[in-house]
Design a protein that fits this description.
Blueprint (H helix, E strand, L loop, with lengths): L2 E4 L4 E4 L6 H8 L1 H5 L1 H21 L3 E5 L7 E5 L9 E5 L17 H5 L3 E5 L9 H18 L10 E6 L1 H11 L1 H4 L4 E5 L14 H4 L3 H6 L13 E6 L4 H16 L4 E6 L7 H6 L4 H7 L3
Parallel strand pairs: 5-6, 5-7, 7-8, 8-9, 9-10
Antiparallel strand pairs: 1-2, 3-4, 4-6
């Protein structure tokens, strides 16, 4: 079906089911949309910012929440001890790339606002399946909630958010009744929610979704299990197909009773918009911080 997308230039529609595979690659593979040279520049910015963040915001690293080689999190606490809020950040990478260490820069804005941050990792495709990753995130959320008190946080003020594939995993947590009961609010940052489309692009060579798994992990047909306040953000320069993902997911969340604030980051592509989402002063960051 066609879905509305907002991009700062008026609303558009995009029906991915009627598009050919080359068009889908351009709309749903961010590297193809942005270009290799620009992507590498953005990733260089990520790594430099992550290194600087680890120097500025000390943490407790590699706290295991499960038995998998990457089932661990880094905990960053404000020097003040925090205001009781706890944010669980889930990195992106289309479920097959990157790590929490690459995204240490995601903690800084929240630390500046006295929010404790759990920057979490997970095993990657194709070593595990997307079903496995969703299960890991459910276990991680339960672990973070169980330990919130000992970290000086209020378990009732546990917020979750993620970028790209991390936004999808956030949506899958919201769809699970046991998980969403633990979540006070969410920020879905430039997410891919409708997993069946992934089966038609090159990314699936590593993600390896079959029809059944794509259906099980399709967040676009799995609304939040209870009303949760949230921000759904997207870059203003992202392709229409990708923007339609955010518009579509925001719509099903609203239908489920969630108070959804939709935020477009002007001039931002898929990679650059993350800095807006995690940095004090960013349009989408401030929208989410106001809910914490």
């Amino acid at each position: 079906m066609g879905q509305q997308a907002w991009n700062g230039r008026g609303k558009v529609t995009f029906d991915w089911r009627s598009a050919d595979d080359a068009v889908l690659e351009a709309h749903f593979n961010p590297r193809a949309a942005v270009g290799d040279e620009a992507v590498e520049a953005h990733l260089g910015e990520y790594l430099a910012a992550a290194e600087a963040a680890r120097e500025s915001w000390p943490g407790t690293y590699d706290i295991a929440y499960g038995a998998g080689p990457r089932e661990a999190l880094d905990l960053h606490q404000p020097a003040s001890g925090g205001n009781g809020a706890l944010f669980m950040f889930i990195h992106g990478g289309y479920w097959r790339r990157f790590s929490k260490a690459d995204h240490s820069f995601a903690v800084g804005g929240f630390i500046e606002r006295d929010v404790t941050v759990a920057n979490v990792d997970y095993d990657l495709c194709p070593d595990v399946t997307l079903d496995d990753i969703v299960a890991q995130m459910k276990a991680c959320l339960a672990f973070v909630h169980a330990h919130a008190g000992e970290w000086g946080c209020d378990p009732a003020r546990l917020f979750v958010g993620g970028h790209s594939a991390g936004a999808h995993l956030t949506a899958m947590l919201l769809a699970d009744p046991a998980s969403t009961a633990l979540i006070a609010g969410a920020h879905c940052m430039s997410g891919i929610y409708e997993t069946p489309v992934v089966r038609r692009i090159s990314v699936n060579e590593e993600v390896r979704l079959d029809e059944a798994m794509a259906s099980r992990t399709n967040a676009m047909i799995r609304p939040p299990a209870r009303p949760v306040p949230m921000v759904v953000s997207v870059g203003g320069e992202e392709p229409a197909g990708w923007q339609a993902q955010s518009a579509g997911y925001a719509g099903i969340a609203e239908t489920a009773g969630c108070a959804v604030e939709r935020v477009t980051v002007p001039g931002a592509n898929h990679f650059s918009m993350l800095f807006d989402a995690v940095s004090a002063g960013g349009r989408s960051f401030e929208a989410f911080a106001a809910k914490m």
